[in-house]
Amino acid sequence: MEQLVEAYEKVELDSAEDVEARIKKQFKEKAWLYVVLDFAVGFGIYEDGSFMIRLDHYEKPVPLDWEYLQELRIFNETGELRLTPYEGRWIGRYRGSNIFNKEKVLQSNEYCIDEQQKIWGRVKDTSGLWSLLASERGTRIWVPVKEEAREWAVCVRKFMRIPNIEDKELVYQTDIRMVGFCPWYQEHGKAGDELGE
Length: 197
Description:
By secondary structure, this protein is mainly beta. It has one helix at 16-26, and strands at residues 7-13, 31-37, 41-47, 50-54, 62-63, 69-75, 79-86, 89-96, 105-106, 110-119, 122-127, 130-134, 140-143, 152-161, 172-183. The termini are far apart. Mean pLDDT is 85; it is low at 190-197. InterPro entries: CRISPR-assoc_Csx19.
């Protein structure tokens, strides 16, 4: 079995403009967004320097409003940049294979595990490149995918630290990054998958 290896880089940027410049250099291909705003959580698309999100109450995708941003994750198969505004700056980390600043790379003895985490709800509507997932509990979220699947999952990569003989700690998860989206099929889950429908 081949072990996945990805680097971890601490990131500190001075402004939203610096964040945009870093993303433009880091993500030359299309990437997805996960945003936590003051008033909502949602997904979006980054492409050609444009940050577009779609929230439940929006009729169509709109540009990301940086003023209300509490957390930003931009991700694709290559890596994920996760940033949070803090005291006028943007701090966070990059996990992935295309490292931007090799001086800030931290080495570790971590293992990676890929898995799928279900997004609650089923496709109720599609519009352009987007699918609206809705559950009976009232959850509604637009996902930037359009295929024939009725349910969707976020593909994630978990980073686990396994102690050696001198280390008395237990196995534990050190980080998790989003990789992309994939269709969710009932056989992926366990009993109880019907709860969030």
